[in-house]
Amino acid sequence: MKHAGDSALDALEPLLARIRDLVPDLAERKRGVFYRKAEAALHFHEDPDGLFADWRAAKGDKDFLRFRVSSKSEQTAFLKALKP
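The structure corresponding to this sequence follows.
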């Protein structure tokens, strides 16, 4: 599964804008790649099965949680998971 490219990030831009507003403690170092201080916290992937977000919910967590974010309903569910 490859990291999301420009066209995938274009499709996710409304979601990215909501993330920027919803979770202000995340710093977007590169478009679609968010950090919490020095630790990677969120990034996106694309593959033939759709678009996915990898989210590290808490500082110090070793593993990312994977969420499918291809549809509006999947994006809504993901945003609920992001809320502190």
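The beta strands are 2-3, 27-30, 33-36, 39-47, 50-55, 65-68.
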